[in-house]
Write a structure and sequence with these properties.
Elements (H helix, E strand, L loop, with lengths): L8 H6 L33 E3 L2 H16 L15 H15 L6 E3 L8 H15 L4
Parallel strand pairs: 1-2
Helix pairs in contact: 2-3, 3-4
Length: 134
């Protein structure tokens, strides 16, 4: 087994699995015609979910809360925040991902209003509303 630069096998053995969900299973059946597609067959506009003002406001409030109450990203979760508009928004994203094509493009994320570290932490929290981040 190869390790990352600066990581020993002991470090890898000492890592903590923070996931409490069951791992996804391997695909064991052929993909049906509804889930197999070519890019030209996808309605690009039907896959876009625009972040509305209420969800954007909650996102910025969460970003401010994360700055005021710092924690490592992996310890963050949606249960730590009040975000009804974002929960509804991410439910729409989840429905698209669970739908026939399985694609969702989130539009209007306020990336200019945050640094990379904040953006990654917010992605982590939002991603947990959709499923287990990997």
């Amino acid at each position: 087994m190869r390790t990352l630069p600066g990581m020993s096998m002991q470090t890898i053995r000492d890592c903590i699995d923070l996931g409490h969900e069951e791992s996804a299973s391997m695909l064991d059946a052929p993909v049906g015609e509804d889930r197999a597609w070519l890019a030209a067959q996808v309605d690009k506009h039907a896959c876009v979910v625009k972040l509305d003002e209420a969800a954007r406001d909650e996102l910025m409030q969460i970003s401010e809360q994360m700055q005021a109450e710092p924690l490592p990203m992996l310890l963050r979760g949606p249960e730590q925040f009040s975000m009804p508009a974002l929960r509804d928004f991410m439910a729409r994203v989840r429905r698209l991902l669970d739908g026939l094509v399985g694609i969702a493009v989130v539009d209007r994320m306020p990336m200019d209003a945050m640094d990379q570290r904040e953006a990654v932490a917010l992605f982590w929290v939002l991603g947990k509303l959709v499923g287990r981040p990997v």
